[in-house]
């Protein structure tokens, strides 16, 4: 029995759900999960569907062709169909902060993340020993302002060599180039250490402390060319008070960063996110 | 244009969603919201669907008949179909505590609750002036252990006279009789001032204080014959610490009770809850 | 037995706590609560102390004189000493939104707020009937851009006549003039319907919706001349997702506004807040 | 400059704070943090104080003697005085679950925990490789129902050999013997995977699922002879709904267990917890 996930979006029209569910019934699929959303402002329809295929004579390739011809063309759909057994390949970009890396690798080793991590890429060697501890290839791609392009070229080679599906910036602290962003559109996940859109840019904990907020946050989002402005996947917060110093903010923030990034990775890996305009639909 | 809500549950089978959505397409309905859930343990299928009917020649009565004959019989469905414009009639049962009453009447007056409140019933006269302040008929039905049956009879007369659809116990503090429960099955909402199943019964804040918990809670649930054991609709919590006395617990708890009860009322009034076994499906 | 609250701040120096607590012991006071905070950046010391005076021959007036001469002068303290029985007088400023007003008056009637509310002031007559329902004098002070000064003059007369100690803007929607702010420095509490500093200014829910945030918030703060930039007293948040419309944000936000404003009122009324620079110390 | 932490509890009496703070002033100490609590029911006074000693001629040993003679005897205090530089030694007890172990060792390696971890003790060999990955001695002490006493003897030898100050049960799944509990009174921290006192004992996620709760939790507490009844240090919760299976509860619970246990370890290691009766005072 094969388990598949289908993601669809298209202009909202009458009869889409009926057409899709009738199609699944026709191919003897059993729908185990269906969720949909209509974005009224833009009149866009989104759907996520999981089903089990019990008829062994139907291959995924045939199914795709059939779906494209029977349904997708008529409704002018953008769509993807995933075999749930196939784990996406994820590259980790890190720099010098180790707490998110420890958290992700701990979860990965404990079997919590439905991904493969074939490579960790960094512009520094500081975290190499952690990668080795978890037996994951570590590639240091150092660069300066002057040879950033070369560095990016090297990064892209590695991403291709390891057939990477999506990238996670685990406190990577470097700005991603437009070229790399375009190669991985809505497939690069960043963790920002503030409750965006409050305190974008550098040193958000210092700014939050200065402003005297009573709650701090962290935000995971897809990377776009506008710094810290990409579609938000997940956010969470923690309470602070006058007794907390900037260092306390930073320490509490580490827990937020860990958990908010881990949730975003899981959502993306399980194909539960869809992007439209500058927002996400998160089917969870 | 009429807006309707359909709630369905039945044994899980292939093709239900396809059949229902095809039916809606056939009657020129436009589905604006669909959500479903399969309870795997019991193999039960649940669905909530909102749609707009643009064809003015189709009446809700015809639609119901058509649905019953075309779909519901085949799949052996239990189902309800509501006209969204028709507000349910809600009776408030109160005793001496006023904070939930103030909150509900404030929200009602501010237009937040999609209900009519034709009557407030109490075993005491203490809160009569509040009801009068909000211009809602207040009926005092006092009773003792010895004439509880008579009291119940009077309550049921009032519920019939005012054509009550569901009952809210706003810190009513009396045990509802099995007879009344059976008349309003899954239609009596209680607010319990603890994080059930911790601290059932009386004086939960005192028990929580004694146990030294760091979090207190409140729970809204449908009333069943087993005290504090009915299907849970909504829960929420607040942090406490060693600095808080029992009185502080009670004061913090009042905010929890208000908000958790208000949320349950909204969910029920908008037909977003379904009960199965001793649990709820909450489509929100 | 008299119960008093003392608030102190001064330059941080050795021996302050010892001096103060020794003073209290000398006058036969029993300290029931003490909390202190040192703001390291600015080297400022803050203290809040509650105590019971068992010696009936000591009047509060004598105590104040004694404290000033024995302690406060030496340490160059700014300080206040309150009789806990004396409730502060609070004015409510409202406009057309009714949900915060209902919530505050409900809590007030239920005895939850340690304040007197001798007057409600509004620039419109819309909410007059609510004030009347709760038997609180309602004064409509309308004004336009052109006669704002006159309006303010009338407001200040009312504040004086009713001997108002602090002002609460319950979704008042008007900018307070610098003159009035200076008369009630750190004594005007506003509720802003966003998680400041995100989305300052008008229509924050619309901005939050557009940005695609996964969490919305509300912020209560003291009013200063910089709009939405005053010292934050309390914040809270609620989760939202792609299924929520702007109207859903607004409805969820109403609950946040109610609760965050009510908490700020309680903290201020119980003298648990102190302001320094643009921040608050909240002893809770 | 030495930094010290003092913990005190005794019968509540007038003048304690004055006496202690005057003592600190006398030895030229600079109080950087002071917090106190009076448990009214039992009339017990608790205090936590941090201070810097600038006079290099005063040793901690002298200070202790001086404090005992000048203050502690008079007030019949129980007290401890810690040098903040001295990290407590913590033993980890594990069994087969790896997620809490990964989390603790990741935090430890990242420098977040103010402890030394000289040994990991387990009744199984399953997690040995993780300990080795982090270079921490791993001792397998297997035992059966029949030779539990021997096993305990071996455990205690290890605890002595490594001079262990406190023990953390990271999902250890075995009941600790009364003898070991008495040796480490209020020094053994357990993580229970439910919101105690709801769902004590085994399989709490299954019970929570069956009950249909809308919120699950985790609880860290000191181990006493009554199973799952010891003083609670910290709790936290996560929302669940009808869409979540028992496996989803377990997966969400892992995050709760990690974070609630890590917070308890930090609080204990920084001497921020005090136990009285069956409760904790947590100065944070």
From TrEMBL, chains A, B, C, D:
Catalytic activity: (6R)-10-formyltetrahydrofolate + H2O = (6S)-5,6,7,8-tetrahydrofolate + formate + H(+)
GO molecular function: formyltetrahydrofolate deformylase activity
Positions in coiled-coil regions: none
Active site location: 228
Pathway field: Purine metabolism; IMP biosynthesis via de novo pathway; formate from 10-formyl-5,6,7,8-tetrahydrofolate: step 1/1
UniProt KW keywords: Hydrolase, One-carbon metabolism, Purine biosynthesis
InterPro entries, alphabetized: ACT-like_dom_sf (IPR045865), ACT_dom (IPR002912), Formyl-FH4-Hydrolase_C (IPR041729), Formyl_transf_N (IPR002376), Formyl_transf_N_sf (IPR036477), PurU (IPR004810), PurU_ACT (IPR044074)
Family according to the record: Belongs to the PurU family.
UniProt-recorded name of the protein: Formyltetrahydrofolate deformylase
Protein encoded by which gene: purU
């Amino acid at each position: 029995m094969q388990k598949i996930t289908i993601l669809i979006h298209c202009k909202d029209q009458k009869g889409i759900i009926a057409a899709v569910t009738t199609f699944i019934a026709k191919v003897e699929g059993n729908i185990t999960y269906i969720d949909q959303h209509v974005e009224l402002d833009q009149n866009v329809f989104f759907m996520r569907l999981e089903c089990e295929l019990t008829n062994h004579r139907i291959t995924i390739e045939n199914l795709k062709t059939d779906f494209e011809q029977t349904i997708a063309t008529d409704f002018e759909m953008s769509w993807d169909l995933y075999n749930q057994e196939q784990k996406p390949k994820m590259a980790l970009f890190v720099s010098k902060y180790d707490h998110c890396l420890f958290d992700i690798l701990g979860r990965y080793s404990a079997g919590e993340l439905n991904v493969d991590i074939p490579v960790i890429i960094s512009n520094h060697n500081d975290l190499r020993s952690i990668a080795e501890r978890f037996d994951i290839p570590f590639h240091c791609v150092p660069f300066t302002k002057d040879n950033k392009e070369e560095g990016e070229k090297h990064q892209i080679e590695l991403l291709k060599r390891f057939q990477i599906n999506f990238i996670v910036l685990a406190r990577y602290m470097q700005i991603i180039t437009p070229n790399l962003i375009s190669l991985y559109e809505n497939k690069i996940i960043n963790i920002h250490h503030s409750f965006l859109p409050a305190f974008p840019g550098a040193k958000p904990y210092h700014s939050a402390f200065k402003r005297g907020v009573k709650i701090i946050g962290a935000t995971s989002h897809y990377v776009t060319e506008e710094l810290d402005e990409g579609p938000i996947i997940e956010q969470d917060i923690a309470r602070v008070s006058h007794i907390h110093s900037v260092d306390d903010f930073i320490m509490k923030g580490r827990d937020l960063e860990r958990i908010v990034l881990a949730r975003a990775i899981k959502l993306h890996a399980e194909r539960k996110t869809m992007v439209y305009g500058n927002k996400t639909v998160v089917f969870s």
